[in-house]
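# nightly structure sweep
# worker-07 picked up a monomer target from the shared queue
# config: single-sequence mode, recycle default, output format = structure tokens
# input follows
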Amino acid sequence: MSKDSEFLWYIPNDVRAGHRGDTAVENHNSLATLTEHARALEEHGWKGALIGTGWGRPDTFTVAASLTARTTSFEPLIAIRPGYWRPANFASAAATLDHLTGGRVRVNIVSGLDNLPAYGDQEGDQAQRYARTREFMRLVRKLWTEENVTFDGEHFRVGESTVVPRIEIRGDRRHPKMYFGGASQAAERVSATEADVQLFWGEPLDGVRERIERLKVLSRELDRDLPPLEFGLRITTLVRDTTEQAWADAEAKVAQMAKSSGAGWSDHRRAVAVGQQRLLDLHQAGDVLDDNLYTAPGKFGGGGAGTTWLVGSAADVARSLRKYQDLGITHFVLSDTPYLPEIRRQGNQLLPLLRS
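# output follows
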């Protein structure tokens, strides 16, 4: 794979043990345990990890800040929600953490439905929600890159606002990268104009190819005024020493999910978003698509990145990930459970093949 490709993992940010089939250990979300994950990522070749968000989970920014203080190169991809944060508050917090860590902050802007009344937020229909997200991203970027910002939008306003400390430009990195997901038309318009990286779930290659082409066209049509949009893949990778062992373990895991109706597997139990529905519908085309994209988990409660899995030996999975890279994917966010041993296994077995 290209030396420009980046590989991140996933840190479960949950008060309940056993997330997506993880080993349910005591103190699973203690600082000591989460630090062990972050340090293992550093030691086994990973760039960092996505840390999930949502009301009813620990505050993502606090977790990210704590882990960066206990590591030296770990880069958190911090999932945050407009509405939970106001733009100037978030821009300031992120600029501060970026300064303290020497430029290790990445941000994943999440627009999906959440328990809004619990933290006093409100938003209207989908169009309004994405309009607000777009404005949030535009304003945060202005606050990071300009001084004395006055902004009078439909959803947010600031006057003579200068965020300190200032974001330090590092090479071609002007500010923390903003990742964004979403498959609806409204979401794609936000991505085409405001995101640095569009994240896809684990769809078949044809679906990802079609979406990349559409987003490139949309970027031109909407007169994007940022560097070209980059693309990322968030997917479960089930890797074992042999192809046969991987499939035996994958089928056993799905059988276990079926027994428990997928308890603990999905973070997406509210209304089903467009992108999630696309994933859930994939198994209708077959339990295995492309070479080794396993869709059966979606039948039994797998949600988000747990809906489809790439299954096989390290060589099998590397071959499949290279095909996504050939389409233009340069950011990979991988995971499997139990999370900690898999950080080591996939760091040792899979990453060297992807870098060779």
